[in-house]
Design goal:
about 350 residues, mainly beta, Neuraminidase, four-stranded antiparallel beta sheet, globular
Length: about 350
């Protein structure tokens, strides 16, 4: 055994026994920094504040920057150092979900895969398989199906797929009822799965076991119809559906499918829509809509009245470049998949103006 091989084996042994803990940071090196303005700008009372961004592997650093010379050398020797290699980074993020454990899962059509950011464990993972031996092609929507499983919609594979909590492919969801699924959401209380099928120009409602129960919406290009349903959000008894070609968000009764109203309309002014995509809601019922054409996040109240724009084209904080999905969590954080900036931008809802 040569001295070099012996040194390598020793390093492998030491590295396996002394894995350095990592922490997740929301202002990663090479990304945006803290201390930026809130929205709306002062002197108005803020509704949103910047809370960081997700880029990928660079969101994780060694705890306390604990990289002594010895450990750094060993990490370099066994190939664990990031220097000299390309880090795993978001390419074209589409949408996401924050699970019951606080993990942030992001679908990426550019990789294509699911990125898993686990702050509590200080770990980062990438899931690539939709089925055993079949990789994702264009994953868009993702949600928790139940306490043990996730469901992911893949537009190019024309199906939805169930994964375990560890990202292991389990089964295809439903049979052949989906044409081009994009956004999806799950009402775990009612036991219903809502999937926007852009190809069929409908929202399809399934049982959590995968049985098609009914459809919601009327295909068309007139007011109150669906032309290109993209993203959806279910909260309470309401279902919100963004329509990228009809330039509005429709609101339905989640249980009956009755059309309740419309948020936004086509137009040339800020607050109007051209290509709405992601849609989500905060704890006060305010509605967040991604306007991808104008690179804006538009905020409406629960009655659909326009409140606030955030955005414009660019890569600075508060700017977007062809954003896609939107989702929220129990902490009232609003996540925006900023697709062509290859990042997820995070805002925090800090309350309505009195």
């Amino acid at each position: 055994m040569t001295a070099r091989v012996g040194l390598l084996l020793l390093a492998l042994s030491l590295g396996a026994c002394a894995a350095a803990p990592r922490v997740m940071q929301y202002y990663p090196e090479g990304g945006a920094q803290a201390g930026v303005p809130s929205w709306p700008a002062a002197p108005a009372v803020p509704r949103l504040e910047f809370a960081g961004e997700l880029l990928g592997e660079q969101n994780f650093v060694l705890a306390n920057n604990d990289q002594g010379a010895g450990r750094g050398f060993l990490r370099w020797l066994v190939g664990l150092s990031r220097r000299g290699r390309q880090v795993t980074q978001l390419v074209r993020p589409q949408s996401g979900v924050v699970d019951a454990q606080g993990r942030i899962l992001v679908t990426d059509a550019g990789r294509p895969s699911i990125f898993v950011f686990d702050e509590a464990a200080g770990s980062f993972d990438v899931w690539r398989e939709a089925e055993a031996g079949v990789d994702f092609v264009s994953p868009v929507g993702i949600a928790e199906l139940n306490a043990d499983e996730f469901i992911v919609a893949d537009a190019e594979l024309a199906g939805a797929f169930v994964l375990s909590r560890e990202g292991v492919p389990l089964r295809r969801f439903g049979a052949t009822e989906l044409e081009r699924p994009t956004g999806l959401d799950v009402d775990t209380v009612a036991g219903r799965v809502y999937i926007a099928d852009k190809g069929a120009r409908l929202v399809k409602v399934f049982s959590t076991a995968g049985t098609l129960l009914r459809t919601i919406g009327v295909p068309g290009d007139a007011a109150g119809t669906l032309n290109a349903p993209m993203h959806i959000h279910v909260v309470g008894d309401r279902l919100y559906v963004s329509d990228a070609l009809n330039a509005h968000v429709l609101t339905y009764a989640a249980d009956s499918g009755e059309l309740l109203g419309q948020v936004g309309q086509r137009g040339l002014y800020v607050g109007n829509m051209v290509r709405p995509k992601g849609v989500s809601v905060d704890s006060d019922g305010n509605i967040y809509v991604v306007e991808s054409y104008y690179d804006h996040l538009l905020v409406y109240d629960d009655a659909g009245r326009f409140l606030l724009p955030v955005g414009g084209t660019g890569s600075d904080v508060g700017k977007f470049f062809l954003p896609a999905g939107a989702w929220s969590d129990r902490q009232d954080r609003i996540f925006i998949a900023d697709m062509f900036n290859s990042r997820v931008v995070i805002f925090r809802y800090v309350g309505a103006e009195s």
